[in-house]
Amino acid sequence: xTDVVVIxxxxxxxxxxxYLRRAKRDFVILDxxxxxxxxxxxxxxxxxxxxxxxxxSLPGRMMPVPADGGYxxxxxxxxxxxxxxxRYQLPVERPxxxxxxxxxxxxxxxxxxxxxxxxxxxxSATGTWWRPYVPHYPGAFGGRxxxxxxxxxxxxxxxxxxxxxxxxxxxxxxxxxxSTVAETTWVTQRPPRLLPDxxxxxxxxxxxxxxxxxxxxxxxxxxxxxxxxxxxRDRGVLKAEPMFARLTPDGVAxxxxxxxxxxxxxxxxxxxxxxxxxxxxxxxxxxxxxxVDGTRALGEPxxxxxxxxxxxxxxxxxxxGASRTARELIRRL
Length: 333
Ligand code: FAD
Hints:
The protein has helices spanning 11-22, 74-87, 169-178, 201-212, 227-234, 319-332; strands spanning 2-7, 27-30, 92-93, 98-104, 107-112, 115-124, 144-147, 161-165, 183-188, 240-242, 246-248, 251-253, 259-261, 264-267, 292-293, 296-297, 300-305. By secondary structure, it is of the alpha/beta class. The chain has two domains: 2-130 and 271-332, FAD/NAD(P)-binding domain (3-Layer(bba) Sandwich), CATH 3.50.50; 144-267, FAD/NAD(P)-binding domain (3-Layer(bba) Sandwich).
């Protein structure tokens, strides 16, 4: 019997590991990937974080400031998480893919492709990257379609006509890059809202915290004006069209009958929590999420959820937010 099994060794699982180690608990962290870094391994190389290193750090150890003094890249974050795991000697077993978590008498049974663990407590920290979301639109498009998860950089789109769908940070950042080499159209469900230049991801974190504590925090905006996004704004390409109504063989069409021929559609339409392994516990609410009190599942008090989004803690799917929520989780254990 293991006291605590953490599923997932991205930033959320590692933050939990740090506090479990400090509390001298018996635990193991199971991770499906061959190597450390969680979702950051898969983000495109030119991506920069939207907060400086000192505000993108896990407990105990600050992320090093990059040599150019700018915000860290996805690669810097992988290097940091790799070092973090080793420095605190976190007991990560990989690659171990958890298939199911079930009730087993007075314990939870964690079943994987590499054996099973019985645990008093399970912390699920499997992130969202593994469940990209693409909304359904009627019609069929004959060109290339991809989601944020498949984007590696602007080069393949040189000289093409590209529609970028989605009004959050990834849509704005991909648009900023692709618009330097391609003819782009940005399509969003509601008008995109840029944060003022002087605010970065720290403002989003504070805003999420205020909202969780019942304060409105005002209407802040949600896209951080990182340098490439600022540059795109200054070039006049950051103008969004309303959402189209359907796909056509050679592009997209709006409800008013207007249409646009394009070569590529990039869906920057977000993710859903990767919770499939928890299905045997039958905890999901009608919205597909598991109802929680803090991080603890209401229907199964031995299960905690960490990361994923604001519903498990303020900004808990960010580096800084995961740390604070993990500290609170381990305190509750
Ligand atoms: P993940 O990093 O996804 O880690 C989960 C781990 O669990 C993975 O290693 C996965 O392999 C493993 N796993 C999944 N399922 C299983 C299973 N069944 N069994 C075993 N292991 C499993 N945040 C910031 O703080 N600053 C930023 O600037 C920022 N920019 C972002 C830009 C983009 C484009 C995106 C998409 C996100 C950004 N984020 C940013 C958000 C956030 O930091 C990441 O989403 C982060 O990766 C979430 O960490 P996590 O540990 O919750 O999940």
